[in-house]
Design brief:
The structure is a single chain. By secondary structure, the protein is mainly α. The chain has a domain of 201 residues. The chain contains ten helices and no strands. The longest helix has 75 residues.
């Protein structure tokens, strides 16, 4: 086959370098790819200095701190309001206690005075020489007892719920704890005394006849409403008969009576009453509850 000369190619209007028509398309694509592969530069980011970071930290810290302080203030206000409500309730409990303590002291003081008279009578003369009416009347109170149960509903509620911490005044909190301790101590002593009182009644029953004891007791109960000394004198002068004049039984009865009143519950109750009144005053002062 004959080769075509360059002149023949020119005659036909063609170029030997562009014999392949695809060359015209490939070249431009390569150029665009090259352009796309150029390095992209990141935008310049302004760096913060130490002072700016510190100020941001300080602002965040202050915001958190102020929020914490505000929450504490709200909590303290709430607890103070709750403490005031508890204080009012505790004052009402204490007022009930003082009323009951006064009744307890009134009865036990009266009984103690009669017991002293009874002990003086049987130790100063022969029993048979003492009018039986006196022995009945003054001997009746050897087994006297009067219960006292503190109203501690508010204290127990605060204790179980952990609300005693609302009383932030240390002196006041200590006063509340002391009063509760004295109440529990008195209750424990009263429980022990009740057992002793039952024993005293057994000896009393061997000396004094029940029906006359009941007459004497009825006079005392009526005198609590309207005192009448004539009724007492009339009973004493009636000289009801005794069941026994046995000195041993009298001595046993007298010793047990003396042991009971030697414990001096009157002094204990008086101390408790004083503490209750003091606590009422401190609660009113602390929470501005003066009437």
């Amino acid at each position: 086959m004959e080769e075509k000369t360059e002149e023949e190619h020119l005659e036909k209007g063609t170029s030997p370098e562009l014999e392949n028509p695809e060359d015209e398309i490939i070249a431009p694509n390569l150029n665009r790819e090259t352009e796309n592969m150029e390095v992209h530069h990141h935008p310049n980011v302004e760096k913060k200095n130490f002072k700016e970071y510190f100020l941001e930290f300080l602002m965040i810290f202050l915001a958190v701190t102020m929020g914490f302080i505000a929450e504490n203030i709200r909590e303290n206000i709430k607890e103070h309001k709750s403490a005031k409500v508890y204080a009012e309730s505790m004052i009402n409990d204490l007022k009930e206690d003082t009323t009951n303590l006064k009744l307890y002291l009134s009865y036990m003081t009266y009984a103690s005075g009669n017991v002293d008279t009874f002990l003086q009578l049987i130790t100063s003369d022969d029993i048979k020489n003492i009018p039986s009416g006196k022995l009945y009347w003054y001997g009746l109170f050897g087994a006297a007892e009067n219960n006292f149960t503190p109203n501690d509903a508010t204290f127990q509620q605060m204790k179980s719920s952990g609300s005693l911490r609302y009383f932030t005044n240390t002196t006041l909190a200590q006063r509340v704890a002391k009063y509760d301790r004295l109440c529990r101590q008195m209750l424990a002593n009263l429980v022990g005394d009740h057992s002793l009182s039952l024993e005293v009644r057994k000896y009393r029953a061997q000396i004094f006849e029940l029906k006359y004891n009941m007459q004497a007791n009825n006079i005392y109960q009526s005198n609590k409403v309207l005192f009448n000394q004539q009724k007492i004198d009339s009973f004493i002068l009636s000289n009801p008969s005794l069941l026994s004049y046995d000195k041993i039984i009298f001595n046993q009865y007298a010793e047990m009576v003396r042991s009971r009143f030697h414990k001096n519950f009157i002094k204990e109750a008086s101390s408790l009453l004083s503490n209750a009144n003091t606590l009422i005053g401190e609660l009113k002062k602390e929470y501005h509850l003066e009437s």
